[in-house]
């Protein structure tokens, strides 16, 4: 018998934009995460303006077999969306799916890896 596949899903959520190119960035990031194979289910969501909503992404994860969902805000700071809106929307979505656990991860914030990326880009720009 093989090992049971991990039933933890990842939802990457951003603000959403009227510009398709801005919304495609999070899709490209989600695709790169899928390629790494650490989560068998990866969905995206937008806070407003664009689809899919967090509710729809949550439902898609459950339909694909998720038992746990980790929501990662693609924001640099813990503003109103991260501290109020996303937890409220996630709780509303979870209420429709009995027995599904969910957790809100910290936003990107001041992660040293982001500092390293900024410095690398700045160094490339110097040459």
Our estimate of the beta-strand percent is: 15-25%
CATH class: Alpha Beta
> Into which percent range does the helicity of residues fall?
40-55%
Strand arrangement across the biggest beta sheet: 2-1-3-4
For the largest beta-sheet, the strand count, sense and barrel status come to: 4 strands, parallel
Task: Please identify the structural class as seen in this structure.
Answer: alpha/beta
Tally of DSSP β-strands = 4
The succession of helices and strands, N to C, reads EHEHEHEH
Distance from first to last alpha carbon: 55 Å
Indicate the CATH architecture.
3-Layer(aba) Sandwich
The CATH topology turns out to be Rossmann fold
Rounded radius of gyration (Å)? 16 Å
Shape: globular
Count of discrete domains: 1
Low-confidence stretches: none
Helix count, DSSP H or I runs of 4 or more residues = 4
Integer average pLDDT: 91
List keywords for this structure.
single chain; 127 residues; alpha/beta; Rossmann fold; 4-stranded parallel sheet; 4 helices; 46% helix; globular
Please render the helix and strand layout as text.
Layout: E1 8-14, H1 20-36, E2 41-46, H2 54-63, E3 68-73, H3 80-95, E4 101-104, H4 112-126
Helix pairs in contact: 2-3
